[in-house]
Write a structure and sequence with these properties.
The chain is of the alpha+beta class. It is 48% helix and 11% strand.
Length: 472
């Protein structure tokens, strides 16, 4: 028997059903107002047990996805998996993510706990300071992007990479002290990987929206026009993890073979900082050759940025310059659009509902909190005149870093201001009544009553069941 294959361990307990319940609770976060989630939850135990038997008997197959288009922040084609398949995605993620995190470099920022966009920006600043001796010496930043990354990921190459790394890591100890091939059921994981990776979401998908929305979408950004056996659906949790795994060998190539210390990557957007400008130019060709030969990818010819670090670089929504960072114009424009929408809503609804007011406070604090990471005090001063009706119902505090509703408004709706949490069912700005039904956004708090009551009853039943099992 190959030393890397899964060892037969009859004593390994069957924890699949327990793992499915854990995956379900992970999958339902921020999704409890969707029809698919509520339909699944209405008969939760039966659905999870049925899913358990399908996976256990190797009869599970991925269901059809819903395909639609989003316009912001950029136009993208999204495939939303059925909630049942989302549970399987979280199950698979919980199994293999801890294993692959051991293989990632420090400066890989996407889909990793405590390694989001802010961490990536801070690491870019760290590398810039380190390479330039705190901006005292001249150095250059090379920023590159992969053309049509998600649509050109070769699924067969990706599966071979995942399988190879899992087998290589098998005999090594996990964070729980046991070897990975004893802790995990490799046969089950590889079966789920084959089902998820090789599934073509364009088959039998449900199209939402007019077909004309796809007319001006570049062919390199659609799964319907991607090469054979290529493409991952944007919108799945597994796609985020797989996209990191696919470029993991490339990360080590840049760090070990090309010898770049100051390197970082967020999905397909990566940078290299070095003092030798000519060396960076030569390595553009080597990087492109490696991507083409090993992964079937190419660099975007119009997104090659090479400049002195002192001139600044845009990365992950921030413009990083010596000793300071700014917010990109796109985020500022989105904040302006949000203010305009809320002002318009307040003018047409003199006494807004509690749901809207709590959302407005949360949305304002979200943007204001985001701005605390950037140098944008003067920009806030310029935005105050645009707040209009929003400032009539509340005020800015803590040096314009927080927004709080007026006391009279809080007393009227019975909330405690900053301590009030955003209702789980409120995910977007309430629309005018004529569009509310179309986008499934009720205009009044009472419209949520039945849905909230059913969800609370299900929570109570599940909590009682967990307590009963714990007592046994």
């Amino acid at each position: 028997m190959d030393e890397h294959t899964t060892k037969p361990t009859p004593e390994r307990p069957d924890t699949l059903l327990e793992d499915l319940f854990r995956a379900y609770f992970d999958a339902r976060k921020h999704k409890r107002n969707t029809r698919n989630q509520l339909r699944f939850e209405m008969d939760l135990e039966a659905n999870l047990i049925e899913l358990y038997h399908q996976i256990h008997s190797r009869e599970y197959r991925v269901g059809p996805s819903v395909c639609f288009m989003v316009e912001h922040p950029v136009k993208r084609e999204i495939f939303a998996a059925d909630f049942r398949d989302r549970v399987v995605h979280h199950l698979l993620f919980n199994y293999i993510a801890p294993l692959f995190e051991r293989t990632f470099i420090t400066d890989s920022y996407s889909c990793l706990k405590n390694k989001g966009t802010l961490y990536g920006i801070e690491r870019l600043e760290h590398h810039a300071r380190s390479c330039s001796n705190n901006y005292k010496e001249t150095c250059y930043v090379l920023k590159l992007d992969i053309q049509g990354y998600f649509m050109n990921i070769n699924r067969r190459i990706m599966y071979e990479i995942i399988e190879r790394v899992m087998l290589k890591m098998g005999p090594r100890k996990s964070n729980k002290g046991k070897p990975w091939n004893e802790l995990l059921d490799y046969d089950l994981i590889l079966y789920l990987l084959r089902e998820v990776v090789f599934n073509d979401p364009t088959e039998n998908c449900i199209m939402r929206g007019s077909r004309s929305k796809w007319a001006d979408l570049p062919r390199s950004k659609s799964l319907f026009t991607s090469p054979k056996d290529c493409g991952l659906p944007i919108g799945n949790l597994t796609s985020q993890l797989f996209s990191n795994i696919y470029l993991n060998d490339f990360d080590h190539f840049v760090k070990r073979k090309l010898g770049h210390r100051h390197y970082g990557r967020y999905v397909d957007d990566f940078y290299i900082i070095h003092k030798d400008k000519e060396l960076l130019k030569r390595h553009i060709r080597e990087i492109n050759a490696y991507l083409q030969e090993n992964l079937g990818l190419t660099l975007h010819p119009k997104k090659i940025y090479l400049q002195e670090i002192s001139k600044g670089v845009t990365f992950l929504g921030a413009v990083v310059k010596p000793y300071r960072r700014y917010m990109v114009n796109r985020t500022r424009n989105h904040f302006s659009e949000l203010l305009a929408s809320m002002n318009a809503y307040i003018r047409t609804h003199p006494k807004p509902s509690k749901t809207f007011l709590v959302y407005m406070q949360a949305a304002m604090n979200s943007y204001l909190g985001y701005m605390t990471h950037y140098k944008c005090y003067k920009m806030k001063l310029k935005m105050i005149p645009r707040m209009g009706e929003v400032l009539r119902l509340g005020y800015l505090t803590h040096n314009m870093t927080r927004y709080r509703l007026n006391r009279g408004v809080r007393d009227r709706i019975g909330v405690g201001g900053r301590d009030t949490v955003l209702p789980w069912e409120m995910e977007c700005l309430p629309l005018p009544p004529e569009r509310a039904e179309e986008a499934f956004v009720p205009d009044d708090d009472a419209d949520w009553f039945d849905r909230r009551r059913r969800a609370d009853e299900m929570d109570a039943l599940l909590s009682a069941e967990r307590r009963r099992q714990g007592a046994e």
